[in-house]
Amino acid sequence: MGRKNRMQNRIQNRPQNRIGKTTKMLSEHHTVHRGDVFFAKLGYHEGTSIQNGCRPVLVLSNDKGNYHSNTISIIPLTGCFKRPDLPCHILLYPEDIKNRHQKLSVSTVLTEQVTTISKSDLRGYVGRIEDSTLLGKIEYALSIHLGLCG
């Protein structure tokens, strides 16, 4: 086996790349909506606090943009509760997600890590946040992070 093939084999067999059902790509027929929760491939950012790997994300961008664009704005979620005191961290409980297709534990919405990804990076659909009060809290936390509050 040549050097190039060995390298490719190592990359494909990394533990992060073996994530079971969540590696399935999003169906072409699924429309992405604001408030949807997916697993998404966020790339790798070693040595930083930027969320990476395949993890749950909340779709933040508006439905019209989601329909017409190949990219979407998302907020990553984490199961780690290191800084619940930060005003830009919102807890998300499994019962907050309606129409659940995959199991998701209690998570923190990391509004300070809002980013844009390609729709092709979306993997498994988890469900949808329909509670307008919770979405309002997430929007408010994002506005605090961006300095849009008075």
CATH architecture title: Roll
Structural class call reads alpha+beta
Tally of separate helices: 3
CATH topology: SH3 type barrels
Q: How much beta, percentage-wise? A: 25-35%
Query: Uncertain regions: pLDDT < 50 for 5+ in a row?
Result: 10-24
- Overall pLDDT metric: 80
Radius of gyration, in Å, reads 16 Å
Number of strands: 8
Number of domains: 1
Walk me through this protein's architecture.
The protein has 150 residues and is of the alpha+beta class. It has a single domain, classed as SH3 type barrels (Roll). 20% of the residues lie in helices and 28% in strands. It has helices at 3-12, 63-68, 132-145; strands at residues 36-41, 54-59, 71-78, 89-92, 97-98, 107-110, 115-118, 122-129. Strands 1, 2, 3, 4, 5, 6, 7 and 8 form an 8-stranded antiparallel sheet that branches. The chain is globular and about 35 Å long. The protein starts with a helix and ends in a 5-residue tail after the last helix. The relative contact order is 0.20.
Summarize the structure.
The chain has 150 residues and is an alpha+beta fold. The protein is 20% helix and 28% strand. The chain is globular.
